[in-house]
Amino acid sequence: QWVYNILEKKAETDRIVHENPDPSNGFVLVPDLKWNQNQLDDLYLVAVVHCRDIKSLRDLTAEHLPLLRNVLQEGKEAIAKRFGVPGSQLRIYLHYQPSYYHLHVHFTALGYDAPGSSVERAHLLADVIDNLAGDSTFYQKRALTFPLRADEPLFKKFQEAGKV
Questions:
Q1: H or E, element range at 94
Q2: Is 119 left (phi over 0), alpha (psi -120 to 50) or beta?
Q3: I need a surface site. Which of 12, 109, 113, 156 has the fewest CB within 10 A?
Q4: Can you give the residue ranges of every domain in the chain?
Q5: pLDDT tens-digit readout, 75-84
Q6: How confident is the model at residue 145, as a pLDDT?
Q7: Which position among 50, 95, 104, 106 bears the catalytic label?
Q8: Average pLDDT over residues 65-72
Q9: Alpha carbons 67 and 156: distance in angstroms, whole number
Q10: 119 or 85: whose pLDDT is higher?
Q11: No. of H helices and E strands in the chain?
């Protein structure tokens, strides 16, 4: 609901750093709740796409390249303009598995060891774009390794299925 409240301007409108209102290729860029915005060392923003039918990395195809390129380019420009942090100093990635199933992209300071920014869970947006440009169904076919905590419901499902 938090995501939809942001997209529908019912919440956090004062926190919006940038918005591209296009329903297909647009997004809203907001500071992540984990970032107190008092310093740039742990800069952390999230771009939430307007399109509601993209749940995760698995749903992405070459059709979504204009959206992904917009998020990458406009997100970097907005952060440089607002916070003075150049794109070369950002880590821009998607989680798989995500914490919520509505496509969103994380922007963190390169030097910040953000939760979930490790290689097992984070997929760099530039790499995602390159992979989809080369193969439209890359993420439907590829095996994606991801970590799970023992207390997560998905882990329990894997246990019940005898996969762990």
A1: strand 90-95
A2: alpha
A3: 113
A4: 1-161
A5: 999 999 999 9
A6: 82
A7: 104
A8: 98
A9: 34
A10: 85
A11: 5, 6
